[in-house]
Amino acid sequence: MAATIARRSRPELGHSGLAPQQGFLSPEALIQKVTGSTKTDAFKLVSVGTMMAGAEAAQARVEAAVESPDADAAEVAEFVAKLPWQAPIARAVPSNALSVDAAESIRFGLGQIDATVTADKLIEALTPASRRGVDAEH
User: Fold this and answer.
1) 103-122: per-residue pLDDT in tens?
2) Which residues contact 116 (CB under 8 A, 6 or more apart)?
3) How far apart are CA 13 and CA 85, in angstroms?
């Protein structure tokens, strides 16, 4: 829900976005008011919700490529390679293997992709956590 509110309140929508239409400056402020949460918790909900939505969309593209009658191994591998490095974290939240707080702490602690910290390095850093049960699918 937080990801949907954030998407429908993105800055390029201006005053026609969901949060501004409801009188809020940001999706986090709207979520804070509706849920009664703290500002910090509202930011975590948006961050983790957006991460989960991105991972779910990427996973859906992989599944569509696998199920396609015209799919070949290279095409499927290309879609798998585009899965976000946070996918194991995102899958762990709805299964209650991780709380929103824990997911945000791991995501934040591992950092963001840049010239020095590549997606492969972040996946490698997450791998020990996966072996402890964060990613129950593997």
Assistant:
1) 999 888 887 777 677 777 77
2) none
3) 28
Enter the tokens of residue 55: 């991972």
- The pTM for the full model equals 0.76
DSSP 27-86: HHHHHHHHH---HHHHHHHHHHHHHHHHHHHHHHHHHHHHH-TT--HHHHHHHHHTS-TT
| Helix locations, 85-118, DSSP H | 87-92, 100-110
Token look-up 């997450």 returns 126
Confidence of residue 123 (pLDDT cuts 50, 70, 90): confident
Residue in 42, 39, 82 with CA at minimum distance from that of residue 59: 82
- Listed in sequence order, the residues at least 6 apart from 9 whose beta carbon sits closer than 8 Å to its beta carbon are 17, 18, 19, 20, 24, 26, 27, 30
| Rounded Cα gap, residues 80 and 106, in angstroms | 22
Q: What confidence tens digit (pLDDT) does each residue in 77-99 have?
A: 877 777 788 888 998 999 999 99
Q: What are phi and psi of 23, to 5 degrees?
A: 90, 20
